[in-house]
Amino acid sequence: DGGITQSPKYLFRKEGQNVTLSCEQNLNHDAMYWYRQDPGQGLRLIYYSQIVNDFQKGDIAEGYSVSREKKESFPLTVTSAQKNPTAFYLCASSAETSGSLLGTDTQYFGPGTRLTVL
Amino acid sequence: KQEVTQIPAALSVPEGENLVLNCSFTDSAIYNLQWFRQDPGKGLTSLLLIQSSQREQTSGRLNASLDKSSGRSTLYIAASQPGDSATYLCASVSRGYNKLIFGAGTRLAVHP
User: Fold this and answer.
1) In the predicted structure, residue A1 carries a pLDDT above the cut 60
2) What percent of chain A shows pLDDT beyond 70?
3) Closest approach of A16 to chain B, Cα-based (Å)
4) Chain A CB contacts of B4 below 8 Å
């Protein structure tokens, strides 16, 4: 089955702790994204990547970090610098290649990870 | 700056009713307008993508229209069913903004 997987489904973070959310896709997509969703708000873009070993900050990158060492994988680390990390995190991918305008192709989403700060 | 608004935030209808969900955007220079469905605690599923050169797209009981001049898109759901209950989000990408801008969504409940 082709698609996007995210793990874990639920994650709990203690104060001062870094945690990493996993995102894997087997759709052979070049572009991958991380969004944050808070109740009553639209999705906000954290980071995106259009090619391996390259990524760009979105609107709310502070307190987060990413890597793109493989085309299939785009992990997100929530660092202790992120003061309000409790949210639903969604990973997505699309076929846009490097240099293309994001959002022109259909985005496919993973099932999400719900992060809670203890 | 592109802003996407969806009103109402929540809607409850009886089964079998035809309904319209609204999406408005401030920047008419859009490349496309997309509609997504999100079930509780799940990711988003793409429903329809309307290119800026198109006026509407149809998939089964769903029809989405786009009016760039008025900055509006509507999602029409025919003969609603309880299985249509979900949150529906619209999003657009416009010239000068290298990303999708999402609305907050309309939470739809279809009751038997």
Assistant:
1) no
2) 98
3) 26
4) 42
